Amino acid sequence: MACSAALVAGAALPAHAIQFGLKDGPGAKFNNDDLALMMARVDTGLKSPTEGDVLDWKNDKTPASGSVVPLNKLTWNGMSCRRLRITNVYGEQKAQGVYKFCEKPAGKWKLVGPEKE
User: Fold this and answer.
1) At a CB cut-off of 8 Å and minimum separation 6, what does 78 contact?
2) Three-state DSSP state, 82
3) What span, in angstroms and rounded, lies between the C-alpha atoms of 10 and 105?
4) What are the helix and strand counts (H, E) for the chain?
5) Could you give the CA distance from residue 52 to residue 77 in angstroms, rounded to a whole number?
6) Residue ranges of the alpha helices (H) in the chain?
7) Per residue in 41-68, pLDDT tens?
8) Rounded to two decimals, what is the model's pTM?
9) Other CB atoms within 10 Å distance of the CB of residue 102
10) Which ranges in 1-106 belong to alpha helices (H)?
11) In angstroms, rounded to a whole number, what is the distance separating the alpha carbons of residues 19 and 2?
12) Residue 19 contacts residue 114 (beta carbons within 8 Å)
């Protein structure tokens, strides 16, 4: 797992886990492999030079899947930020939202909250 995804997974997700559907939604059923696949796509989305590409992921060993769509880049509170639309699925259960991640220090991304689409 890339460094920036590890930071997001390790530092930011516990505080915002419910927003990703990781507490009460489909992500609550994700195993470590599912989470690693999702976070790899989050990392790719944060680094993507383009907007709108759908970065799908699926664990063939579980009913877990999802996608990450990189949205716009912006400056917020003096930080370089990026919005991502994240969709998580486990079987028939689905959760989707738009989240803002900011880079501070450079190369270290942190989830700073949900966004409105």
Assistant:
1) none
2) strand
3) 16
4) 3, 5
5) 24
6) 3-7, 13-16, 32-47
7) 999 999 999 999 999 999 999 999 999 9
8) 0.81
9) 19
10) 3-7, 13-16, 32-47
11) 22
12) yes
**Span between the terminal Cα atoms of the chain, in Å:** 28
Residue whose entry in the numeric block shows the structure tokens 């949900």: 114
C-alpha–C-alpha distance, residues 96 and 91, integer Å: 14
Is the model more confident about 32 or about 115? 32
Residue of 70, 87, 85 lying closest to 27 (CA atoms): 87
Q: Between 18 and 111, whose confidence is greater?
A: 111
Residue with the bigger pLDDT between 90 and 1: it is: 90
- Return d(Cα 95, Cα 109) in angstroms, integer: 22
One-letter amino acid of 51: E
CA 116/CA 41 separation, integer angstroms? 21
Measured distance CA(28)–CA(63) in Å, rounded: 13
